[in-house]
Amino acid sequence: MRDWNWKHLRExxxxxxxxxxxxxxxxxxWTEVDGVRLHHRAxxxxxxxxxxxxxxxxxxxxxxxMPLAARLAGSRPVRALDLPGFGLSGDxxxxxxxxxxxxxxxxWLEAVGEGPVAVLGxxxxxxxxxxxxxxxxxxxxxxxxVGPTMDSAAATKPRQIWRWxxxxxxxxxxxxxxxxxxxxxxxxxxxxxxxxxxxxxxxxQRLPAVKAPVLIARGAKETVAxxxxxxxxxxxxxxxxxxxxxxxxxxxxxxxxxxxxxxxxPFLERTSAQ
Length: 274
Hints:
The chain has helices at residues 6-17, 66-72, 98-112, 124-135, 157-167, 175-186, 188-200, 203-206, 227-236, 252-255, 257-272; strands at residues 26-33, 36-43, 52-55, 78-81, 117-122, 140-146, 214-219, 240-245.
């Protein structure tokens, strides 16, 4: 069990729960894409540099990306998007697969007039981010995959749920009300069907088509994406490097944002000039 810093826990929750209200750093914005209003949390004062697009994982939203977003916002523009049907974004009706979600992001980037961007995805968000990079390479400057799923050696719902449960003692306990709120927004049906879509997706088969530079990061206390799986993904990518986030669990973007940002920011600085 981690020795929790309660001041940090309260700050993480404040950042996660702020939308749609503006705060000192971020504001909520909506953009209509194919008749659906998509919500994203955006840095209000954009420093120069390539924007960073944060893509959330399964059944959650922009909310659990916000602790990391706050650490990145001082060095470059940050956008934390709610995928259609999740968070504060509108309901598109049908549940989109990985390629479909990548298409939604591409259409959204065109609508807001941004790109190429650096894309950071956590968990299932890493699957969507790689699909975006493979199918729309002109839109992606670089990629960061944090705890990427789904490990092909455990591609069943029981195994993935067990791995996630094993990691819970290392996660920020303040994340629980955030996850429950996100699940209520998405609905159990959409979340469960997306889980199945994530399991059926073979991220490792897509990676040879990703030409952008990639950083694969996993937490030192990660239980969902083991080091063996990270090595497999690394071998499949033309331009990749790996890193371990010290003392971090699967949702390093929420629980260990300082440690993760310390790895991500130098990578973004190196790759922005390429």
